[in-house]
Amino acid sequence: KRTGELVALKQLKKINEREGYSIAARRELEILHKMRHPNIVASRGLASSSRNDRVYIVMELVDYDLKTFMQTMHSNKQLFSVEHVKCLMKQLLRAVQHLHDHHVMHRDLKTSNILLSNEGVLKVADFGMAREYELNPRLYTPAVMTRWYRAPEILLLLKEYSCPVDIWSIGCIFAELVTLRPLFPGSSELDQMTKIFKTLGTPSDSIWPGFSELRMVKNIMFDKYPPGGLRKKISQDLLSEDGLSLLQCLLTYDPSKRITAAAALEHAYFEEQPVAVEPAMFLTSLWSNVKCLMLQFFGAVQHLHKNWILHRDLKPSNILLSYEGVLKVADFGLAREYELPPRQYTPGMVTLWYRAPELLLFANEYSTYIDMWSIGCIFAELITLQPLFPGSSECDQLFRIFEGLGTPTDTTWPGYSELTVGKITFENHPTGRLRETMSNLLSDDGLSLLQDFLLYDQAARVTADAALNHPYFKEEPVAMEPAMFLPSLWSEYVAQNSSSNMGESEH
Fold it and tell me: Which of 119, 168, 300, 321 fits 329 for a cystine, CB–CB 3.0-4.6 Å?
């Protein structure tokens, strides 16, 4: 409240009232406080509830977590470009180098513990399992790290380990950034080991000294798999030879020979073309393909409206994308032919998050402008990868719209005060919040177009025809051709892996 900064809170868990907070909670707070780095989430101290019965770590609020971001990209059939992968990897390696230089193991690196700001800055978060370590590996609990990112020495229950366990996790994350699929999505510890061995080959004493003497290896007969499966999983179209070399260095069985974060940053992969995009350009360059989608979307809706058709349920799940990059509007279950002037229809149309305010206020005379409102909501969602107005009810939906765009008046919406629901007293919110919501992800021309879609006054709302000619589409970078939107290698990759499920839960 003192600074007005939005922050994230993580509640510290108590053991009990007498003993207070756990050693792990205190350790997390100490490590966060000491590990100041641009690529590590910043601690803002502690806060307590009004009754002092709950204590929270206060941290900077970061816009996205990498797991959700990647799932959205995957659902849109998009891949990160090489320069985007390099940008993220360099930042991740710098963060981990800083931790290891200060003798700290994270011990739970995974995509959901990596955050990404609107400025393209990666932040490592969640130090609940982090430990300070000594130069000579010592005994620690092996029950750390999320399974899919767990190093083989931990899976084989070694209690002596050190910072190489984080490096293995980085290797798994690297592969996932390239393919948008987990590299080793094991369903159990044994299945995890089997998936690793099938891909990298079953280890031996020659590549991992002492492997055969490990207790689990003595007790379990593992199948013998040859090495070389990594290239079969990740084609050269997706990862260069230098990239594969780095990945193999990160996924070396012998922890003592596994590459360090400092050495990884000097790897030839980061020197070859194309080099990493600057963090400040990360999201801007990623969103240039939004124009390709929006131009096709407007073209489809323009065709519907010219032929006197209202779609009445435009939302992302009703928009399809072919492997050739062609956008298709689908699901015409609520569509209606319309007349001018507008006639009476049922107001219970359009999925809630994309529903125009006139429908929320039970107007039953409407026309094409309800589709244009939905397009505005979808446009914003393409840019931020988050719903613009995710209301939980009709009333909450209105509150969110008014909070985001300002409470309407008869000036911004002629006749508003005469609407039946308009007689309810809504809290007065100022205009101008849309720029704050979109941050620097959308240019001034882009914001102007978005505002034209989201006008309260239906008669003034932009048409699909006019939107196609908006200056936003003439400024650089211009829309790419649909054929370039989804590289053929991605469509081939999706076709080969269509049975796999990105949304599989982590274990």
Answer: 300
Nearest to 152 by CA among 199, 102, 118: 199
Total-model pTM:
0.71
The rounded distance, in Å, linking the Cα atoms of 180 and 186 is 16
8 Å CB contact between 66 and 96: no
Residues 6+ apart with CB under 8 A from 191: none
The answer to whether the beta carbons of residues 292 and 330 sit under 8 Å apart is no
| Arch. (CATH architecture) of 285-485 | Orthogonal Bundle (1.10)
pLDDT of 138: 59
pLDDT at res. 8: 78
Local structure of residue 338 (DSSP, 8 states)? -
Q: Shortest CA distance to 66 belongs to which of 282, 289, 322?
A: 282
User: Which residues touch 88 (CB under 8 Å, ≥6 apart)?
Assistant: 66, 80, 116, 122, 177, 282
Q: Does domain 7-60 sit in CATH 3.30.200.20? A: yes
The answer to whether domain 64-277 has CATH 3.10.150.10 is no
pLDDT (0 to 100) of residue 493 = 46
Strands (E) across 298-417 are located at: 309-310, 319-321, 327-329, 336-337
Examine the residue annotation and report whether 108 is marked as an active-site residue of this protein: yes
Give the per-residue pLDDT at 305: 96
The pLDDT of residue 25 is 72
Angle, alpha carbons 327-330-334 (nearest 5°): 145
* Cα–Cα distance measured from residue 38 to residue 129, given in angstroms and rounded to the nearest whole number: 21
Q: Do the two domains 7-60 and 64-277 of this chain adopt the same fold?
A: no
Which residue in 63, 65, 108, 452 is the catalytic one? 108
Q: What residues of the chain score a pLDDT lower than 50?
A: 15, 488-493, 495-496, 498-507
> Can you give the pLDDT at residue 485?
63
Q: How many CB atoms lie within 10 A of CB 370?
A: 27
In this predicted structure, what is the pLDDT of residue 501?
46
